[in-house]
Amino acid sequence: MTSVRVILLFLMAITAALISSQGVLRAHIKKLQSSSDNYHEHQKYEKYIPGQSEETILKNILQTDATTACRDIWKDKTVAQYKLGLKKYQDAINNLEEPVPNLMVDVKRSGGKHDACGRTRLHPKGITGLFPKNHLSFSSSGYIEPLFPPSRTCGNNTNDDEDVLSHLVHDFEAMCHTLLPYSNIVLFDIGASSDFRGNKSPLERLLDVYERMGFIFDHIYAFEETFEDPKKVYGSLLPEKYIPSYHWINVGISSEQGSKMNPLHSILKKFTEDDLIVVKFNLDTSIGATLARQLLEDDAYSTLIGQFYGTPGNVTASDSLELFSKLREAGIPAHYLL
Question: In the prediction, which pLDDT does 17 show?
Fold first, then answer.
Protein backbone atom coordinates (compact mmCIF):
# COMPACT_ATOMS: atom_id res chain seq x y z
CA MET A 1 0.00 0.00 0.00
CA THR A 2 2.86 2.33 0.85
CA SER A 3 4.50 1.78 -2.53
CA VAL A 4 1.20 2.49 -4.31
CA ARG A 5 0.85 5.72 -2.35
CA VAL A 6 4.39 6.76 -3.29
CA ILE A 7 3.69 6.05 -6.96
CA LEU A 8 0.46 8.08 -6.83
CA LEU A 9 2.22 10.97 -5.17
CA PHE A 10 4.96 10.77 -7.78
CA LEU A 11 2.44 10.84 -10.64
CA MET A 12 0.61 13.78 -9.06
CA ALA A 13 3.87 15.69 -8.78
CA ILE A 14 4.70 15.04 -12.45
CA THR A 15 1.21 16.17 -13.51
CA ALA A 16 1.51 19.40 -11.54
CA ALA A 17 4.93 20.02 -13.01
CA LEU A 18 3.65 19.54 -16.55
CA ILE A 19 0.74 21.91 -15.98
CA SER A 20 3.02 24.69 -14.77
CA SER A 21 5.90 23.97 -17.12
CA GLN A 22 4.93 26.53 -19.75
CA GLY A 23 4.76 29.32 -17.19
CA VAL A 24 8.08 28.25 -15.67
CA LEU A 25 9.67 28.10 -19.12
CA ARG A 26 8.38 31.56 -19.96
CA ALA A 27 9.72 33.00 -16.71
CA HIS A 28 13.07 31.26 -17.16
CA ILE A 29 13.50 32.53 -20.71
CA LYS A 30 12.67 36.08 -19.70
CA LYS A 31 15.17 35.86 -16.85
CA LEU A 32 17.86 34.73 -19.30
CA GLN A 33 16.96 37.53 -21.68
CA SER A 34 17.12 40.22 -19.02
CA SER A 35 20.75 39.31 -18.26
CA SER A 36 21.89 38.69 -21.84
CA ASP A 37 23.57 41.08 -24.24
CA ASN A 38 24.76 43.52 -21.53
CA TYR A 39 21.78 45.60 -22.56
CA HIS A 40 22.63 49.21 -21.72
CA GLU A 41 19.06 50.46 -21.84
CA HIS A 42 17.36 47.79 -19.69
CA GLN A 43 14.72 49.61 -17.69
CA LYS A 44 11.53 48.17 -16.33
CA TYR A 45 8.45 49.83 -17.79
CA GLU A 46 6.04 51.13 -15.18
CA LYS A 47 4.45 54.11 -16.90
CA TYR A 48 4.90 56.31 -19.92
CA ILE A 49 7.53 59.02 -19.44
CA PRO A 50 7.44 61.88 -21.97
CA GLY A 51 10.78 63.28 -23.04
CA GLN A 52 11.83 66.85 -22.44
CA SER A 53 10.95 67.87 -25.99
CA GLU A 54 7.48 66.35 -25.71
CA GLU A 55 6.74 68.18 -22.47
CA THR A 56 7.67 71.44 -24.18
CA ILE A 57 5.44 70.64 -27.14
CA LEU A 58 2.41 69.65 -25.09
CA LYS A 59 2.73 72.74 -22.95
CA ASN A 60 2.86 75.03 -25.99
CA ILE A 61 0.15 73.28 -28.01
CA LEU A 62 -2.37 72.34 -25.35
CA GLN A 63 -2.04 75.32 -23.03
CA THR A 64 -1.57 78.21 -25.47
CA ASP A 65 -2.90 79.28 -28.84
CA ALA A 66 -2.58 76.10 -30.92
CA THR A 67 -2.04 77.83 -34.26
CA THR A 68 0.77 80.05 -33.03
CA ALA A 69 2.42 77.30 -30.98
CA CYS A 70 2.19 74.86 -33.86
CA ARG A 71 3.97 77.28 -36.15
CA ASP A 72 6.67 78.25 -33.67
CA ILE A 73 7.43 74.86 -32.12
CA TRP A 74 10.23 74.09 -34.58
CA LYS A 75 12.07 77.22 -33.46
CA ASP A 76 12.26 76.04 -29.84
CA LYS A 77 15.85 75.40 -28.65
CA THR A 78 14.90 72.14 -26.93
CA VAL A 79 13.32 70.81 -30.10
CA ALA A 80 16.32 71.97 -32.16
CA GLN A 81 18.64 69.93 -29.90
CA TYR A 82 16.44 66.89 -30.31
CA LYS A 83 16.47 67.20 -34.12
CA LEU A 84 20.28 66.95 -34.09
CA GLY A 85 19.95 63.60 -32.32
CA LEU A 86 17.26 62.49 -34.76
CA LYS A 87 19.67 63.09 -37.63
CA LYS A 88 22.26 60.84 -35.93
CA TYR A 89 19.63 58.14 -35.44
CA GLN A 90 18.53 58.29 -39.08
CA ASP A 91 22.14 58.09 -40.24
CA ALA A 92 22.79 55.08 -38.00
CA ILE A 93 19.81 53.23 -39.50
CA ASN A 94 20.54 54.19 -43.10
CA ASN A 95 24.27 53.53 -42.92
CA LEU A 96 24.12 49.96 -41.66
CA GLU A 97 26.63 47.97 -43.69
CA GLU A 98 24.13 45.14 -44.10
CA PRO A 99 20.67 44.31 -42.72
CA VAL A 100 20.44 42.57 -39.35
CA PRO A 101 19.76 38.83 -39.92
CA ASN A 102 16.33 37.49 -38.95
CA LEU A 103 16.35 37.81 -35.15
CA MET A 104 13.84 35.03 -34.55
CA VAL A 105 16.23 32.45 -36.01
CA ASP A 106 18.68 32.94 -33.14
CA VAL A 107 15.92 33.44 -30.58
CA LYS A 108 14.34 30.09 -31.47
CA ARG A 109 17.66 28.22 -31.60
CA SER A 110 18.84 29.59 -28.27
CA GLY A 111 15.83 28.72 -26.15
CA GLY A 112 15.94 32.25 -24.75
CA LYS A 113 19.62 32.93 -24.01
CA HIS A 114 21.22 34.70 -26.94
CA ASP A 115 23.15 37.79 -27.95
CA ALA A 116 21.09 38.52 -31.06
CA CYS A 117 19.74 41.81 -29.72
CA GLY A 118 23.21 43.32 -29.66
CA ARG A 119 23.06 43.41 -33.45
CA THR A 120 20.31 46.02 -33.26
CA ARG A 121 22.35 48.37 -31.06
CA LEU A 122 22.97 51.58 -32.99
CA HIS A 123 25.38 53.13 -30.48
CA PRO A 124 27.74 51.69 -27.84
CA LYS A 125 25.55 53.26 -25.15
CA GLY A 126 22.31 52.18 -26.78
CA ILE A 127 19.80 54.39 -28.52
CA THR A 128 20.02 57.15 -25.90
CA GLY A 129 23.66 57.64 -26.85
CA LEU A 130 22.46 59.24 -30.08
CA PHE A 131 20.23 61.86 -28.46
CA PRO A 132 20.62 64.64 -25.89
CA LYS A 133 19.85 63.40 -22.38
CA ASN A 134 16.14 62.99 -21.51
CA HIS A 135 14.91 64.06 -24.95
CA LEU A 136 13.43 60.69 -25.96
CA SER A 137 10.13 59.48 -24.53
CA PHE A 138 10.01 56.12 -22.74
CA SER A 139 7.24 53.66 -23.59
CA SER A 140 6.29 50.03 -23.06
CA SER A 141 8.39 49.20 -26.15
CA GLY A 142 11.44 51.20 -25.09
CA TYR A 143 12.38 54.68 -26.24
CA ILE A 144 10.40 56.46 -28.95
CA GLU A 145 10.28 59.90 -30.53
CA PRO A 146 8.62 62.74 -28.59
CA LEU A 147 5.08 63.45 -29.69
CA PHE A 148 5.27 66.23 -32.26
CA PRO A 149 2.21 67.77 -33.90
CA PRO A 150 1.55 66.14 -37.28
CA SER A 151 2.45 68.25 -40.30
CA ARG A 152 -1.05 68.26 -41.78
CA THR A 153 -2.58 69.80 -38.64
CA CYS A 154 0.12 72.48 -38.59
CA GLY A 155 -0.41 73.52 -42.17
CA ASN A 156 2.98 72.08 -43.05
CA ASN A 157 1.93 69.00 -44.99
CA THR A 158 4.45 67.60 -47.45
CA ASN A 159 4.10 65.43 -50.50
CA ASP A 160 7.69 64.23 -50.15
CA ASP A 161 7.35 60.51 -49.46
CA GLU A 162 11.00 60.40 -48.45
CA ASP A 163 10.04 62.22 -45.25
CA VAL A 164 6.94 60.25 -44.33
CA LEU A 165 8.71 58.12 -41.69
CA SER A 166 11.81 60.20 -41.06
CA HIS A 167 10.52 61.52 -37.74
CA LEU A 168 9.97 58.05 -36.19
CA VAL A 169 12.26 56.53 -33.56
CA HIS A 170 12.18 52.84 -32.59
CA ASP A 171 14.12 51.18 -29.80
CA PHE A 172 14.72 47.98 -31.74
CA GLU A 173 17.05 46.62 -29.08
CA ALA A 174 14.34 46.88 -26.42
CA MET A 175 11.81 45.34 -28.81
CA CYS A 176 14.20 42.46 -29.49
CA HIS A 177 14.44 41.71 -25.78
CA THR A 178 10.69 41.02 -25.67
CA LEU A 179 10.97 38.20 -28.22
CA LEU A 180 10.58 34.62 -27.02
CA PRO A 181 11.16 31.39 -28.98
CA TYR A 182 7.41 31.07 -29.56
CA SER A 183 6.70 34.76 -30.34
CA ASN A 184 4.87 35.84 -33.48
CA ILE A 185 5.68 39.13 -35.21
CA VAL A 186 2.41 40.44 -36.65
CA LEU A 187 1.28 43.53 -38.58
CA PHE A 188 -2.31 44.74 -38.91
CA ASP A 189 -2.72 47.16 -41.83
CA ILE A 190 -6.30 48.42 -41.66
CA GLY A 191 -7.15 50.49 -44.73
CA ALA A 192 -4.40 48.81 -46.72
CA SER A 193 -2.94 49.65 -50.11
CA SER A 194 -2.09 46.80 -52.46
CA ASP A 195 0.30 49.02 -54.43
CA PHE A 196 3.78 47.51 -54.06
CA ARG A 197 5.06 48.78 -57.40
CA GLY A 198 8.20 50.47 -56.14
CA ASN A 199 6.67 53.80 -55.16
CA LYS A 200 7.55 53.17 -51.51
CA SER A 201 4.24 53.65 -49.74
CA PRO A 202 4.29 54.26 -45.95
CA LEU A 203 3.66 50.53 -45.44
CA GLU A 204 6.62 49.56 -47.63
CA ARG A 205 8.87 52.00 -45.83
CA LEU A 206 7.73 50.65 -42.48
CA LEU A 207 8.39 47.07 -43.58
CA ASP A 208 11.81 48.11 -44.90
CA VAL A 209 12.86 49.59 -41.55
CA TYR A 210 11.71 46.55 -39.56
CA GLU A 211 13.36 44.14 -41.97
CA ARG A 212 16.60 46.12 -41.96
CA MET A 213 16.71 45.68 -38.18
CA GLY A 214 15.97 41.94 -38.27
CA PHE A 215 12.21 41.91 -37.59
CA ILE A 216 10.51 39.71 -40.20
CA PHE A 217 6.72 39.57 -40.00
CA ASP A 218 5.10 36.15 -39.66
CA HIS A 219 1.67 37.56 -40.54
CA ILE A 220 0.56 40.72 -42.33
CA TYR A 221 -3.22 41.18 -42.14
CA ALA A 222 -4.22 43.72 -44.80
CA PHE A 223 -7.83 44.97 -44.69
CA GLU A 224 -9.27 47.05 -47.52
CA GLU A 225 -12.88 47.57 -48.57
CA THR A 226 -12.21 48.76 -52.14
CA PHE A 227 -12.14 45.70 -54.37
CA GLU A 228 -8.85 44.55 -55.87
CA ASP A 229 -8.64 41.30 -57.83
CA PRO A 230 -6.68 38.86 -55.60
CA LYS A 231 -5.02 37.42 -58.70
CA LYS A 232 -3.59 40.87 -59.36
CA VAL A 233 -2.64 41.42 -55.70
CA TYR A 234 -0.76 38.15 -55.33
CA GLY A 235 0.22 37.65 -58.96
CA SER A 236 1.71 41.02 -59.90
CA LEU A 237 1.57 43.58 -57.07
CA LEU A 238 2.86 41.73 -54.02
CA PRO A 239 6.63 41.07 -53.82
CA GLU A 240 7.43 37.37 -53.60
CA LYS A 241 9.02 37.67 -50.16
CA TYR A 242 5.62 38.55 -48.65
CA ILE A 243 3.67 35.65 -50.18
CA PRO A 244 4.10 33.36 -47.10
CA SER A 245 2.90 36.00 -44.63
CA TYR A 246 0.43 38.28 -46.46
CA HIS A 247 -3.33 37.97 -45.86
CA TRP A 248 -5.34 40.17 -48.25
CA ILE A 249 -8.79 40.62 -46.63
CA ASN A 250 -10.76 42.55 -49.24
CA VAL A 251 -13.91 43.40 -47.25
CA GLY A 252 -15.12 46.28 -45.16
CA ILE A 253 -14.50 46.04 -41.44
CA SER A 254 -16.80 46.81 -38.54
CA SER A 255 -16.09 48.90 -35.47
CA GLU A 256 -18.79 47.08 -33.52
CA GLN A 257 -17.33 45.50 -30.41
CA GLY A 258 -17.56 41.71 -30.52
CA SER A 259 -18.20 41.59 -34.28
CA LYS A 260 -16.25 39.02 -36.25
CA MET A 261 -15.59 41.78 -38.80
CA ASN A 262 -13.85 43.87 -36.15
CA PRO A 263 -10.19 42.79 -36.59
CA LEU A 264 -9.26 43.99 -33.12
CA HIS A 265 -11.73 41.49 -31.67
CA SER A 266 -11.64 38.56 -34.08
CA ILE A 267 -7.91 38.38 -34.88
CA LEU A 268 -5.73 40.64 -32.77
CA LYS A 269 -7.06 39.36 -29.46
CA LYS A 270 -6.20 35.79 -30.47
CA PHE A 271 -2.52 36.64 -30.00
CA THR A 272 -0.81 37.06 -26.63
CA GLU A 273 1.43 39.56 -24.88
CA ASP A 274 4.40 37.36 -25.84
CA ASP A 275 3.86 38.31 -29.49
CA LEU A 276 5.06 41.53 -31.10
CA ILE A 277 1.99 43.15 -32.63
CA VAL A 278 2.17 46.23 -34.85
CA VAL A 279 -1.05 48.05 -35.80
CA LYS A 280 -1.49 50.66 -38.54
CA PHE A 281 -4.71 52.41 -39.52
CA ASN A 282 -6.14 55.75 -40.55
CA LEU A 283 -8.09 57.90 -38.14
CA ASP A 284 -9.66 59.89 -40.99
CA THR A 285 -12.83 57.77 -40.94
CA SER A 286 -15.51 57.28 -38.32
CA ILE A 287 -14.59 53.57 -38.10
CA GLY A 288 -10.94 54.44 -37.50
CA ALA A 289 -11.82 56.95 -34.80
CA THR A 290 -14.08 54.39 -33.11
CA LEU A 291 -11.37 51.72 -33.19
CA ALA A 292 -8.95 54.19 -31.61
CA ARG A 293 -11.39 54.76 -28.75
CA GLN A 294 -11.66 51.00 -28.28
CA LEU A 295 -7.90 50.83 -27.85
CA LEU A 296 -8.30 53.25 -24.94
CA GLU A 297 -11.37 51.59 -23.42
CA ASP A 298 -10.05 48.02 -23.29
CA ASP A 299 -6.92 47.50 -21.16
CA ALA A 300 -6.12 44.27 -23.04
CA TYR A 301 -4.82 46.25 -26.01
CA SER A 302 -2.13 47.97 -23.95
CA THR A 303 -0.51 44.59 -23.26
CA LEU A 304 -1.00 43.28 -26.81
CA ILE A 305 0.05 46.16 -29.07
CA GLY A 306 3.78 46.77 -29.33
CA GLN A 307 3.61 49.66 -31.81
CA PHE A 308 0.73 51.71 -33.23
CA TYR A 309 0.86 53.94 -36.31
CA GLY A 310 -1.97 56.22 -37.36
CA THR A 311 -2.74 59.21 -39.52
CA PRO A 312 -4.17 61.98 -37.35
CA GLY A 313 -7.38 62.64 -39.22
CA ASN A 314 -8.97 65.99 -40.01
CA VAL A 315 -8.81 67.43 -36.51
CA THR A 316 -6.96 70.25 -34.79
CA ALA A 317 -3.38 69.86 -33.61
CA SER A 318 -4.46 69.96 -29.96
CA ASP A 319 -7.17 67.29 -30.42
CA SER A 320 -4.83 65.03 -32.34
CA LEU A 321 -2.04 65.39 -29.78
CA GLU A 322 -4.47 64.70 -26.97
CA LEU A 323 -5.59 61.39 -28.55
CA PHE A 324 -2.07 60.14 -29.24
CA SER A 325 -0.92 61.27 -25.81
CA LYS A 326 -3.73 59.25 -24.20
CA LEU A 327 -2.75 56.18 -26.23
CA ARG A 328 0.82 56.48 -25.00
CA GLU A 329 -0.26 56.98 -21.41
CA ALA A 330 -2.46 53.87 -21.73
CA GLY A 331 0.64 51.84 -22.60
CA ILE A 332 0.37 51.85 -26.40
CA PRO A 333 3.41 53.36 -28.17
CA ALA A 334 1.60 55.58 -30.68
CA HIS A 335 3.28 57.21 -33.67
CA TYR A 336 2.02 59.62 -36.30
CA LEU A 337 2.25 58.70 -39.95
CA LEU A 338 2.46 62.17 -41.44
Answer: 46
* CA gap 323, 292 in Å, rounded: 9
**Number of domains present in the structure of the chain:** 1
* Residue 4: inside a domain: no
b/e burial code for range 223-254 (CB count within 10 A of at least 16 → b): bbeeeeeeeebeeeebeeeeeeebebbbeebb
Single-letter residue type at 62:
L
Rounded Cα distance between 249 and 239, Å, is 17
pLDDT in tens, 59-101: 766 565 555 666 667 677 888 889 899 999 999 999 999 999 9
**The model's pTM:** 0.84
Containing structural domain, residue 270:
52-336
Residue type, 42: H
In a domain, 42, yes or no: no
Per-residue pLDDT of 143-171, as tens digits, reads: 999 988 765 555 444 444 445 688 899 99
Query: Does 22 fall in a domain?
Result: no
* Predicted local distance difference test score (pLDDT) of residue 3: 55
HEC sequence for 251-281: CCCCCCCCCCCCHHHHCHHHCCCCCEEEEEE
CB 311 within 8 A of CB 318: no
CB-based contact 335:209 (threshold 8 Å) = no
β-partners of residue 189 are: 222, 280
285 belongs to a structural domain: yes
* Half-sphere exposure for 133 (CA within 13 Å, toward CB): 0
Contact 120, 173 (CB under 8 A): yes
Helices then strands, each counted (H, E), the chain:
12, 8
Question: Residue 190 belongs to what H/E stretch?
Answer: strand 185-190
Query: In the 8-state DSSP scheme, what is residue 149?
Result: P
Where the chain has pLDDT below 50, the residues are: 1, 4, 6-8, 10-11, 13-40, 155-162
d(CA 28, CA 274): 14
